[in-house]
Amino acid sequence: MMQRRQFLAASLAASALTLARKSEAQSEAKPGREFYQIRQYKLENGTQPKLTSSYFADALMPALTRLGFGPIGAFQLDIGPETPVYYLLIPGSSAENLVTADLHLAEDQEFLKAADPFWSAPATAPSFQRVESSLLAAFEGWPKLTPPASSATKAKRIFQLRTYESPSYRDHVRKVEMFHKGEFDIFKAAGLTSVFYGDTLIGPRMPSLTYMLALNNLEEMNGKWAAFSSNPDWKKLSADPRYAFEPTVSNITNLFLSPLGCSQI
Question: pTM of this prediction?
């Protein structure tokens, strides 16, 4: 049993070191290229949503901002497979900074004081059900998160969070390549505002990529996606034998989010 524990500890340490080195190498290759942590807080109706949103606004987001992260997105799931669910989108300069953030939070006395109602909730009345997170690397062609103009004015806005799963790593790489060969521009031409594009490094259902689009409201969505689909450049790109030889996307998760009052995006 002792040998097994030592083996597991060594394996985890090696994985962490590999991830840190990969983060450093990617950052050196593309200065300014970001990494993203997407946290999903699964809640139950009742006191949990209010307690969690207060935790975001009063404790977690101020503490993450002090650590140099931002702008941070905080959202509630409006349309998706299960609700209530809150999402946090945290951009960072390296993967290591993101995966070690919680260690620094535990040393922040201001955070611990503000977070106490959430952190110290008893097992009989927990503040959340589960938290799941993924780690992503920004696409080379879209290296930084770009909030829509409506974020600064807190105007009405919604966000579409889309995840594409591929049947193989070859197909995944081809799909990422499509974005760099023209898909970014086709989104822009259709009036779809891109927020970020990320390649999943750690998370469920890999290989996958995730991106976020900003919209003023749901009513405009269908028209803009129709403009995307009918764009001659998209028809040409999607018919290219390099990408059309087989379905490069096997499943799409499509979520609609609205920003919480504390969201910086």
Answer: 0.86
